[in-house]
Amino acid sequence: MAISTISVDERLQASDTTEGDRTRRAKLAIVLLALLLAATMLLNLGSGASDASGLVVLRDLLGGADTFTLRDRVIIYDIRLPRLLLGVLVGAALAVSGAVMQGLFRNPLADPGLVGVSAGASLGAVSMIVLGQTLLTPLNDALGSLALPMMAFVGGLITTFILYQIATRHGRTSVATMLLAGIALAALAMAVTGILIFIADDRQLRDLTFWQLGSLAGATWSKIYAVAPIIISALAVSPFIARGLNALALGEPTAHHMGVPVQRLKYAAILSVSAAVGAAVAVSGGIGFVGIVVAHMLRLAIGPDNRYLLPASALLGASLLLLADAVSRTIVAPAELPIGIVTALAGAPFFLWILLRKRGVLDL
Amino acid sequence: MIKFENVSVAIGSKTIIKGIGFEARPSEITVIVGPNGSGKTTLMKAMSGESAYDGSVSINGHEVSAARSRDQALMRAVLPQATTLSFPFTVREIVNLGILSGRSGVSRINDLVERALAAVDLHGFAGRFYQELSGGEQQRVQLARVLCQVWEPVLDGIPRYLFLDEPVSSLDIKHQLAIMETARDYVRRGGGVIAILHDLNLAAMYADRIIVLARGRMVAVGTPDQVIRDDVIAAAFECHLSVGKTPQGNAPFILPQSFSP
Q1: Model ipTM value
Q2: Confidence at residue B205, expressed as pLDDT on a 0 to 100 scale
Q3: Which chain B residue lies closest to A259 (C-alpha atoms)?
Q4: Residues within 8 A of A (CB atoms), B 193-252 only
Q5: Is B10 within 8 Å of chain A by CB?
Q6: For the ABC transporter domain, which residue ranges apply (chain B) (predicted)?
Q7: What's the predicted TM-score (pTM) here?
Q8: What is the DSSP string of A65-121?
Q9: Of A183, B28, B56, B185, whose CB has the highest number of CB atoms within 10 Å?
């Protein structure tokens, strides 16, 4: 091309092939985040009503020192460990779902809470709490302790399905319609939830409040067994949609031009998000802002490439939720502040900060 | 070869293009011209697999509406009129998105991003943030991405194509020429280019064949000498133009005369 006297080859020789390439930084970040998660896990294992430190617990787990009393053993294996694992699962599920939704909606402020998935899951759970002894008794009897998680999960899926039906015409999903329909569906789900709260008795009201504020306190092994397969398989989808989500950042037509099966990509993203969020809400209630905060911090650090953003989100989301859980357990000890309050107190100002920073840049 | 046979596209009850039929060959630059709203972009959307159509549109014998996104992407790359970006990618990351991953037909050239950036005169821009560039620079970054997707004009003996929708609309004159030279180089090496242009002089200079659209129909097709004529252009664009020859005498050029035909 005759636009310069220097040949292309000469210029290529002088070029720096790493300029603007953030993959090395992203890989390093993932290693560091894995270490951070290991550290927070140890910290969480060792903090609480028993004196057993994280390292001692670890040694015991690996079959070493046998210095535990029975009380310690119960605390560690029946309370702390399931709670720890639940925190990791829920934190990873919420953070990755947030990042995937943001990629799907091409908007850094999107969140499962925004499109009604969380509200639908809440409605499912609340109807179980309020109607479990009356209308839904057969379900309660049949599923036992799984009844609540199942109802939340089903609530999330139904909302997502309706949302998808409304927003999709002629095989194309309109993101704007989806956001608006999500707001309407969330309002509807919250109104029905309101009716249920209105007819609830005092004991149920206490359960409801606690659950709605979000908590990892009810962690049991049976809950882990119920949600781990759902969350892990939902997270396992993310490596397959990461490249497609990157292309989607340039718009749906361009993603199609680049060979991405856009409709299938959207379907996979929506399904995995609703499964992960439904499962997370079912066992931990309304824990907000994890998705927005984690993905935003990571984009600033390693860039928006979803191939690295999604795994990094899983690691950082799990770590942050464990830290929030440690705060919630210790800040008003021996009582416990619901973790949803901790994440909202930290996350809502962060959300506003993003809005202020992006004012005039974002089309909302 | 790209082949349109009796193609119509309707959006709702409104017919946008009707009865379009032409062939665009490899080793040729085919330019589509026409007034605003004449259906140029709709025509490009039909061949990009973006909008449904009646009739038949095929690329190298594959019907577009029946081909998977991935297979279409191996045969052609598309530069849209405008591209929005929702997250802060660097120039390198954007161009890199154009390189298809995985199976056959994927370019394995190591410094492809550098080569593509050099081809659009953006050498040294790899580290910049896309959103901080000017409109013309962004347009050229997108073109570099598009070039990466079909870098080899002929793959396994099968020609590939560049679809360019107003590729030079926001560029200065130097880069208009640079981009058109890149297109010419692409067809010289056996690929095909189909471009929508508003600048009739640029079309006359670079096109091997020109298709004139007006009110959704093809009103003329042929070489620049056959198509760039007072009567054809005046009828299509509904204004008065006078057509002369460049001093070198190798291409017609158009001088606007008056608004009323």
Answers
A1: 0.92
A2: 92
A3: B70
A4: none
A5: no
A6: 2-240
A7: 0.87
A8: -----HHHHHIIIIIIHHHHHHHHHHHHHHHHHHHHHHHHHT-TT--TTTTTHHHHH
A9: B28
